[in-house]
Design goal:
With 230 residues, the chain is of the alpha+beta class. The chain has 5 helices and 11 strands.
């Protein structure tokens, strides 16, 4: 049976409840789990003031009312849906989400999934999901590639001088930094993790205190009584 035939939906189908739990196996290694979490946390932090997106990973995308799933097809390791409500979900159920498919998908390759990620999944994301951008990354050997949907077919995204790939959907670059797949802004700034942002804020506070201390010392040299300054 072809993918198109398997996904065909009769007109009189009764849609099952939308409150469906995800049914995905755990990611294969700590490297894969940490990489997925890194991408999710960075995007959520960068877009902390936005409420028009959903980002998640390794949860089921239910796109057929009959709930048929190929044994080779699992929920994406990372995906982003734009133009939707930002709220927690048990899974992504298409008929409860105005029929929205992901705008961006990233699969994390492994020895056991690489052929499926590059074959069956790529075909489904191209022909059925029609997801505008698809990337894959191997946390172990650092293989990285990206594709943009052009006239219904995926075409490879050309890397810039740093080896980064531009995501028009996210308006961010994706690139490998210290053996991790990271986001970069359009002007080349690394999108921080929560821990990195906290460290940056701590450093800025320390620098501000040092400037304040130097100014206070200079004023004292000039004989200015700081306690008298309101």
């Amino acid at each position: 049976m072809s993918v198109a035939q398997d996904l065909a939906t009769p007109d009189n189908v009764i849609f099952p409840p939308g409150d469906l739990y995800s049914n995905e196996p755990p990611l294969e290694t700590d490297l894969h789990r940490l990489q997925m979490t890194l991408l999710i946390q960075c995007l959520e932090l960068l877009w902390r003031d936005r409420n028009d997106f959903y980002v998640s990973g390794n949860i089921t995308i239910y796109y057929s009312p009959r709930q048929r799933k190929s044994e080779d097809f699992r929920g994406p390791d990372f995906f982003v849906v734009l133009g939707t409500e930002r709220k927690p979900r048990k899974s992504w159920v298409l008929w409860e989400e105005d029929g929205k498919y992901p705008n961006v998908i990233i699969e994390l390759l492994s020895d056991s999934t690489a052929l499926t990620d590059k074959g069956l999944k790529k075909q489904i994301y191209q022909d059925t999901f029609r997801t505008p951008e698809y990337f894959w990354f191997d946390p172990q050997n650092l293989e990285f590639a990206g594709f943009v949907l052009v006239a219904g077919k995926y075409q490879a995204i050309e890397a810039n001088a740093q080896g980064w790939l531009w995501s028009q959907q996210l308006e961010l670059y994706l690139g490998v930094e210290q053996e991790k797949l990271r986001f970069f802004t359009a002007d080349g700034q690394l999108v921080a993790t929560p821990e990195e942002l906290a460290e940056q804020e701590k450093l800025r506070a320390e620098q501000e205190k040092q400037r304040s201390d130097r100014l206070a010392a200079k004023l004292r040299e000039l004989g200015i009584d700081l306690d008298s300054i309101e």
